[in-house]
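User: For documentation purposes, I need each entry recorded in a consistent format: the amino acid sequence on its own, followed directly by the corresponding structure tokens. There are two entries in this batch. Please keep commentary to a minimum and don't merge the entries.

Assistant: Recorded as requested. Entry 1:
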Amino acid sequence: MRTVLITGANKGIGFETAKQMAALGYFVYLGSRNKEKGEKAVLALHELGFFNIAPLHIDIADSTSIKAAKAELEKKVESLDILINNAGILGTMPQEPSTTSIENYKDVFQTNVFGTIEVTQQFLDLLRKSESPRIVNVSSEVGSLMENSDPNWIKYDSVKPFFAVYGASKSAINAYTIALAYELRNTNFKVNSVTPGHTATDFNNYKGFKTVEEGAQPIVQCAILPDKGATGKFYSAEGEVKW
């Protein structure tokens, strides 16, 4: 059975992604910063009839936790087929670039950028043992530099006062996606960024217009790309997104 690790999967889009991947027959390791919440999430999925799932305690902002999670997973599997870097934080709001604190930038980047990169690097050895490894970095359209610099973009004015920090962290992850995909271009790896879109979760006080089922769909589609699929791209449910 093919295996997938999803970080930040005890709730919201991560939880729904875990459910959809389990429904497709993958064995899901549900990553969670809080061990108890992760175990409760797994039990909830068991109650829905999904038994091909297990918890994995991992705090992506903590190097020790990441390394411990890798060691734990190595006891259970010989390879990892898919890594979905879903865990992330929004940071303190609003995020005016002229006034938001350096501490806010550091906190958000520690999780969204440095944590995501460290998780990827730590689990690459297991991914390399897969015949068709996939890495999906969950991003956001607010991290698109092309859209943010286009006055005709529908969100051009609305995102500016609120997402300077969060958006910058997702721009950085998009840059990492491009660089890693290029490094692994002559292998079977597929490395892509995905935006779930404005999805209603506790992350945004349920203000999104998409359901979690809709938000998880493009993530799942990138996770199960065929060997002829694209790499080094930025996708949404509607198609390719401008960098």
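Entry 2:
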Amino acid sequence: MSAVKASEVRDLSDAELEVRMRDARDALFNLRFQHASGALERTGEIAQRRREIARLLTIAREREIARQQEGENG
């Protein structure tokens, strides 16, 4: 699994961003489940997924704020 870069995320459409968010949350759930059952060997993956989700949420919020500002100014 490779780290997702903010520049890559910014190139995604809103729909792709939502799909990526859902996939990341599902993956985090599965990792937590594996960790709880003792099957997860690389526990660092949990932190990677959490950062990925935070990055996706940040980009989504930036877009939301930009749309609000366009509405106020336009």
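Summary note for entry 2:
The domain at 13-73 is CATH 1.10.287 (Helix Hairpins).
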